[in-house]
Amino acid sequence: MRVDLFDFDLPPDRIALRPARPRDSARLLQVTPGGLADHLVTDLPRLLRRGDVLVFNDTRVIPAQLEGMRGSARIGATLHKREGVREWRAFIRNAKRLKPGDRIDFGAGVQAIASDRGDDGSFLLAFEGDEPVELMLTRAGRMPLPPYIAGKRAVDARDAEDYQTMFAREDGAVAAPTAALHFTPRLMAALAEAGIGHETLTLHVGAGTFLPVKAEDTDAHAMHAEWGRIDAATAARLNAARAAGGRIVAVGTTSLRLIESAAGDDGAIQPFQGDTAIFITPGYRFRGIDGLVTNFHLPKSTLFMLVSALMGLERMQAAYAHAIAAGYRFYSYGDASLLLP
């Protein structure tokens, strides 16, 4: 499909620079074949049905943004995928000043050797020493806010908490599964009281999620792979809930993509562990999920393509036009939508 079909005009003031407080007070746009309805995230217990199951991503964002020096050249690095115990693939700023074999000094006793330059301009960084890389990053790295936020204000101490979900426990993401940022213990208790269950899986979100689609046609766009896992017990419980008439509602496109990667043609979710580079565009037949809670996405992004595949392009264009006119807040710290096809 032509990528420009997924374009739309978004006023800059619709981009949220801070999350709603409290988190579950954000607005929620319900989108169904029957139309649009304005709600709050706290309305979810009455918008879902007893027996439904929400599926969250329990990945934890690491301080993956690094600034360092290669000699006299300043080098920026955004880690986006672990490739070994001490090796990370990274997007590099000022990459023309870096070549394989160069050492980058990130300060605080953290150094890495660059190698294996990819076609996308990324480098493989091998961190030196014996100390766990995660500990090194806590000293030298900072929270990797999306460029549409970091380009408008500085990252600060509040982001260390704001850009982490209540489910975060598995270190490895360089971007938050932002739909789950809206959930609080208070909301989870209300959902449980309403008979709505929840499960967790792990998908370590990569910085490739922020990359614009530069191709003119979706067939020419290559997704970056991300590592994920659904264990056998979780898969079995999800299948049992669906067999009993419950709906599987992914919280976030990361949860959705992993479930769809693990689902067979019959819709049964299988245990999964490994990389996925699934790219969902209109025409895709969904197998493992029945609904989605997600934020509002960028024009011409793979994520707007995904929600258009789920609900139909015209319906999502109308939903986004309504959201813009009604003052909904967009992107990572913005408001949410509930998509029920």
Provide a descriptive summary of the structure in words.
The chain has 341 residues and is an alpha/beta fold. It folds into 2 domains: 3-61 and 161-339, QueA-like (3-Layer(aba) Sandwich), CATH 3.40.1780.10; 65-141, Beta Barrel (Thrombin, subunit H), CATH 2.40.10.240. Helices cover 22% and strands 27% of the residues. The chain has 9 helices and 17 strands. The protein has helices at 44-47, 133-140, 147-150, 157-162, 185-193, 232-243, 253-262, 302-311, 313-325, and strands at residues 27-32, 35-40, 53-57, 59-61, 65-70, 73-82, 87-93, 103-107, 110-115, 123-127, 170-173, 197-203, 226-230, 248-251, 272-276, 291-295, 336-339. The strands form 3 sheets. The chain has a 9-stranded mixed β-sheet. The protein has a 6-stranded antiparallel β-sheet with strand order 5-6-7-10-9-8. A hairpin with a 7-residue loop joins strand 9 (110-115) and strand 10 (123-127). Helix 8 crosses helix 9 (313-325). It is globular. The mean pLDDT is 95.
Chain-wise SSE layout:
Elements: E1 27-32, E2 35-40, H1 44-47, E3 53-57, E4 59-61, E5 65-70, E6 73-82, E7 87-93, E8 103-107, E9 110-115, E10 123-127, H2 133-140, H3 147-150, H4 157-162, E11 170-173, H5 185-193, E12 197-203, E13 226-230, H6 232-243, E14 248-251, H7 253-262, E15 272-276, E16 291-295, H8 302-311, H9 313-325, E17 336-339
Parallel strand pairs: 1-17, 3-12, 3-14, 4-11, 14-16
Antiparallel strand pairs: 1-2, 5-6, 6-7, 7-10, 8-9, 9-10, 12-13, 13-15, 16-17
Helix pairs in contact: 8-9
Summarize this structure briefly.
Helix content is 22%, strand content 27%. The chain has 341 residues and is α/β, with parallel strands linked by helices. The protein has a nine-stranded mixed sheet.
